[in-house]
Amino acid sequence: MSIRKRVPAVxxxxxxxxxxxxxxxxxxxxxxxxxxxxxxxxxxxxxxxxLLGDGMGVSEVTAARYYQYGADGRMNMDKLPFTGFQTTWxxxxxxxxxxxxxxxxxxxxxxxxxxxAKTIDERISQGPSSADTVPGDNLETVLEVARKAGKKTGNVxxxxxxxxxxxVLDSHISLRGCQGxxxxxxxxxxxxxxxxGPGSITEQTIDHKVDVLLGGGRARFEQPLVAGxxxxxxxxxxxxxxxxxxxxxxxxxxxxxxxLLGLFTPVNMTTEWSGPxxxxxxxxxxxxxxxxxxxxxxxxxxAMTTKALSLLQGDKDGFFLQVEGASIDxxxxxxxxxxxxxxxxxxxxxxxxxxxxxxxxxxTLVVVTADHSHTSQIVGEDTTGNGNPTGYSNNLxxxxxxxxxxxxxxxxxxxxxxxxxxxxxxxxAVPVMAIGPGASAVLGTTDHTDLFGLLQGDAxxx
Amino acid sequence: MSIRKRVPAVxxxxxxxxxxxxxxxxxxxxxxxxxxxxxxxxxxxxxxxxLLGDGMGVSEVTAARYYQYGADGRMNMDKLPFTGFQTTWxxxxxxxxxxxxxxxxxxxxxxxxxxxAKTIDERISQGPSSADTVPGDNLETVLEVARKAGKKTGNVxxxxxxxxxxxVLDSHISLRGCQGxxxxxxxxxxxxxxxxGPGSITEQTIDHKVDVLLGGGRARFEQPLVAGxxxxxxxxxxxxxxxxxxxxxxxxxxxxxxxLLGLFTPVNMTTEWSGPxxxxxxxxxxxxxxxxxxxxxxxxxxAMTTKALSLLQGDKDGFFLQVEGASIDxxxxxxxxxxxxxxxxxxxxxxxxxxxxxxxxxxTLVVVTADHSHTSQIVGEDTTGNGNPTGYSNNLxxxxxxxxxxxxxxxxxxxxxxxxxxxxxxxxAVPVMAIGPGASAVLGTTDHTDLFGLLQGDAxxx
Lengths: 462, 462
Hints:
By secondary structure, chain A is of the alpha/beta class. Chain A has a single domain, classed as Alkaline Phosphatase, subunit A, CATH 3.40.720.
């Protein structure tokens, strides 16, 4: 089992399909337009927008579609013309050949699409090793390739900016928890700057000089660079030339003459929607979700995406932008269907921004995927006694004015406490959707590592 | 909410994608070949093979792939170049506009792809109505369209031949349970032949003169035509000109000069594999599956598919063949991962037969899909106490020599008996995969009803 897959320019996994000379004229929503030929040897993407719905398996997408738009409705992500499936297995600590782990985390899966290699859970763009605490080899990321090619780069998330998904693009560290300097001193002592290493994820993020950085996690950046010191990573970023913003208004006012660091909350950003945590048995009473949970001082993911595109566009070398809808996963863990669906809808609105940009700039590749599947399942409204799910359920009143039951049962065990413990990821293949040059590479069943080649667009030419 | 969708020749749902002039040259597994242009106005399929994995959601596919071929392995179905997602919601009894049911059964979903219309659960190619017991309007099926166009037709399943999926092609009845004459007299009294109706599913199947009928369910056909009579539906079939076989050897010997009825078991056919039913908590001890469960007198699904193709091929008007891997669903209900995966692998072997035929006859459209998603989920091997799933789990030793945990938790309720009750279907969108003329219609997110237009191939021309 090789951890580094062979990565053709337009990637295809074992048994996957390579389309040669596939040029397409599309009609989407009544509008006709062309994409360039997707031949391996012809046009490649000048700009790349990668949108990652954390934990957004097929079940999560369906639940959001039915709740928000009704059974007959369609989401923005449903408009991407090329669709397929990707396997997401990671590997276990040990020695080569590393053994597969069928139920991965977001650090190992992020490393897959960001670097084209398999690694162990908790690892950020480093290869596998004998144990979690033994650093692996650093792996070049697609953001690093883009920067080398002169492209502008952006990294946007609703989680902490140092969380696994954004971190895999601009950091290399053995454990995902080593987010701020204090965290790294406690958990990754061999990799701190004091020890001659690259430092925590916050420090590496700034050192990478990513042009646009927007998300939560301010508390990580407010940790001191030196133990007990007074200078923190925000100070460090400013010294490196960053403009720093902490609310939506100042984000909107930011100009493109300096790189931008926006940290809008101390930890994860606030979810767009709220609702009750799932309950055992029949579940929560049927209800609609509260859709006004996010304070206006925090920008939406769509607003962050719009701002990032406005700052990145226009460069002769193009750009690479990553946009993560992070709390789909976090609210799936929390067994909260309203918050989970609200984050999926918010992510889908960011996709609309990307698709609108792509329509006006057809040399842009847009890829939408998830890093792993998750717990939530749509089930029937059982009234027969033993037919209820074994876990925790929410009953939601959808756009169709009908009840949809969403259940969570991957954690709770035989003890099964009244309040659901953090639910597990699941191992099902994830959906992948794409439009633009190279997009046909996502057809069929491929592996998450296959994205690495595709996401480089024309950066490979440099 | 319209129950009958607008069905263009190459179907596209709301917001779905229509590809114009998409001609493709494929390289699959190192072999290059062409498919005709998929333009709406150009070549349509002369032959159609529809393969239906009952309950085979993305999770079921992934579990089978990992168990049988390992993390890096690929299934035959992974070779189909065009891939997408389909919504499967049915409607609730009532009055138009009918309200959606997000968690459908195989009768309503079968009616969707076989007729292009939404209907209520339990219904076989009839429209919805105010209650289960009130018959709906009969809806023309894709098999009927094919017969009208002079095509030969076949219907193959591992379930009873009168089970929902095969039934939707050649029968119209208000309740799926009305399989044999006795069943219909008990449950669908308004629809028996004695009452002037079309009769039970067995009788309608024979009256349809389907050229090849292979599966289980002999006991349904051995019910007497008239209450207390001695002539049964097998006798009726013989009188109508059918050759009748009951084991693999006689099936192989059947000739193409007469239509063929093969009924290999009294009820459902025997599963290919066996293994333990899932257990609470940590689940069953890690083990491999027993892969020799099916008696040799019963043909495999692949053998039935091979025989059906040999009998249907060569007609100037082409053919329509349906092949169902039925017990993926039935073993998912039973919370038995070995039997479920064995049926998925057996279904995949039937897909290989279809793909081989398609390669030699590129005017053949092959479509693979599922009628609804199901319960099984791949989770981690938790050892921390509360992290185990709330339901029932199997631990399997895969081709990688690693443990894969598959869990079932959509039924069991708060009582949660030691033996799992029948698990529920789930509402997640299903995978759809296709190759051949028109295949690109499955890209993106469409609805199960959209298959009706695609599956007609060139039959619409007549």
